[in-house]
Design goal:
about 550 residues, alpha/beta, 11-stranded mixed beta sheet, 20 helices, 18 strands, about 20% strand, elongated
């Protein structure tokens, strides 16, 4: 059979395609994944082509095309192997990506679309895809797009992302440390901000990197100006902050806290106006009222048990009130009903030309970082739920270092942040909440969260477990591209899913210095040559360290 293909089928070409010689034939058709046989001599002849796309024909991750009726079928090469006993033949596994119409006079491809209506038969000639073909394949449809780079291996074909499809079904940006992940995230967000200057984006920044990138077009918040009222916490978040005991004791403490918190919320004017008040309702209350109510409950004659649970709660609340590090959230100045102002500021309602909020949580005490992130995430989701029936204002929530907040079962810490972010991943799009996850360890994410992301942007991943995790989450047609993930250069990525017409390998655009995040690695060889002023550095550092200020 191989001999028959070698003698005749490789030379079979249509009149319109006589300028480009075939490079192989179809061997086997099996749904989305099929096999073709490539001729090494024909591939060698393409290497000298002036067209870089034709020159890379036959390599893993490249595209090929085959003519079926009046259509061109486009397929992606997933893997290559030498056929035993036929050293001059190479078998290639391919995944079909889509099809386009053939122009009768020139044989060129146009009007490309995803999916295949009619498969080729074994023996059908296979041709290399050209730059002109890729321009048609990657030509953006008539809908909102952002350009983020160039399609590999071309120099001039622009790579576009469909914004509505990408945000409507969530997206994930993955990549090992040092691959340019932060700069690429900043690029994508800058492009979205340019497209929608009245948008609503909240980014949780755990390392304080992104404030430098969005000075001109973003609202920047940290512990100095966030002013997040403590009474916005729901009961579960109150328990994470105030309940310090374990086991059965924690349930006793939580029951006492629930009773006293509900009474504290009911004491205020707002609480008295609501007929059926719940412990989760965001009603202002005084921390002093809460501690007084705990003391009253402790002093009741009909109380069962010892006073230890009451003392634990009272001590923890007093400790947090006195700690200046918690001032951004538990200050006595945050008692007034500022919920409307807080939502307007953080969710950019209206945006005033600054559609993105960068919430820098690097200065937040580590014990309550997850509670702060949980509060912000839950408020995005709750706002979307309770504003149903109003004119829609969709919000994009971007979470950097996502594996810290949505850990898998192996690393689970039972915090509320993982539950709310998992819920947003599963249900958010129904309510107009989009989730953008940025992580260097996708294998440490909770099971199923990555699969909820309709668009996956994967940069280089060095860890085998991470690669396997991403492979499981990507659609079948993108498997050929996955093999090139370990070989990607910095600021290169594979994009697949709803945000692109077909899976593509992209080289990201550069960013101006004033739009780049402050995430550059230190240059040890340069910095270790510098000397002088060490005593002043130590003195200033110790002063900030002791005052717990930055």
């Amino acid at each position: 059979m191989t001999e028959m293909q070698g003698s005749e089928a490789f030379n079979r070409a249509t009149p319109a395609m006589m300028t480009i010689a075939p490079i192989g034939v179809v061997l086997e058709i099996a749904g989305s994944s099929s096999q073709v046989v490539l001729d090494p001599r024909a591939l060698e002849a393409t290497i000298g082509s002036a067209d870089p796309v034709i020159a890379s024909a036959g390599s893993v991750g490249s595209q090929i095309k085959m003519r079926v009726g009046a259509s061109w079928l486009i397929a992606n090469i997933r893997s290559l192997r030498l056929i035993e006993g036929a050293e001059d033949r190479i078998a290639a596994l391919v995944d079909f990506l889509g099809e386009g119409d053939e122009e009768k006079l020139t044989g060129k491809l146009y009007r490309f679309r995803r999916g295949v209506t009619r498969y080729p038969v074994p023996g059908c000639a296979v041709y290399p895809v050209s730059t002109a073909d890729l321009k048609q394949i990657y030509a953006p449809e008539d809908r909102a797009t952002i350009e983020v780079g160039t399609v590999y291996p071309t120099r001039d074909i622009r790579a576009s992302l469909y914004v509505d499809a990408m945000l409507g079904k969530h997206f994930a940006l993955l990549g090992s440390t040092g691959t340019g992940k932060s700069t690429s995230a900043a690029l994508i967000l800058h492009k979205i901000c340019e497209l929608a200057p009245q948008g609503h984006i909240v980014m949780i920044d755990p390392h304080g990197e992104y404030s430098a990138a969005f000075k001109t077009n973003g609202a920047l918040y940290d512990v100095g100006n966030l002013q997040m009222p403590y009474w916005l916490m729901n009961f579960e978040e109150h328990c994470e902050v105030f309940v310090t005991s374990d086991g059965s004791d924690s349930q006793i403490d939580a029951d006492i806290l629930a009773k006293c918190l509900l009474m504290a919320r009911a004491k205020g004017r707002l609480g008295q106006e609501i007929g059926k008040l719940t412990v989760d309702a965001p009603i202002p209350y005084l921390l002093s009222d809460l501690t007084n109510l705990i003391s009253l409950e402790m002093g009741k004659m009909d109380r069962a048990g010892d006073t230890a649970p009451y003392m634990r709660l009272k001590t923890k609340i007093d400790e947090i009130k006195a700690d200046p590090r918690y001032g951004f959230m538990f200050s006595g100045m945050l008692v007034a009903d500022t919920m409307a102002d807080f939502l307007a500021r953080v969710f950019r309602l209206p945006g005033d030309g600054k559609p993105i909020s960068i919430v820098d949580v690097s200065g937040v005490p580590s014990e309550i970082t997850s509670v702060v992130v949980a509060m912000l995430s839950r408020m995005v989701f709750d706002f979307a739920i309770w504003s149903r029936g109003e004119p829609q204002r969709p919000v994009l929530l971007v979470c950097e270092e996502a594996h810290r907040y949505i850990p898998n079962e192996r690393n689970a810490d039972a915090s509320s942040v993982g539950r709310i972010l998992s819920r947003i991943a599963k249900e958010g799009r129904k309510y107009g909440v989009s989730l953008g996850l940025i992580t260097q360890r996708p294998s440490d994410l909770a099971e199923g969260v990555l699969s909820q992301c309709g668009t996956i942007i994967s940069m280089r991943l060095n860890n085998d477990r991470d690669q396997a995790f991403v492979r499981a989450a990507m659609p079948e047609g993108a498997r050929g591209f996955l093999d090139s993930i370990p070989a990607l250069r910095n600021r290169e990525c594979i994009i697949c899913g709803e945000g692109v017409a077909i899976p593509i390998r992209v080289s990201f655009d550069g960013l101006e210095d004033n739009k780049r995040p402050a995430s550059d690695d230190p240059l040890f060889s340069d910095l270790w040559r510098q000397t002088g002023g060490e005593s002043e550095i130590i003195e200033r550092t110790i002063k900030r360290w002791r005052s717990q200020g930055r």
